[in-house]
Amino acid sequence: MMRIYIVIAASVLLAACDKPMGEVGKPAQQVSAPAKMVTPATPMPTRSHDTAQITHGAAVYKQNCAACHGENGEGAANWRQRDANGQFPPPPLNGSGHTWHHPLGALRYTIRNGTKAIGGSMPGWKGKLSDADIDAVIAWFQSKWPERAYIAWYNIDQRARKRK
Question: How far is CA 8 from the centre of its chain?
Answer without folding.
Answer: 16
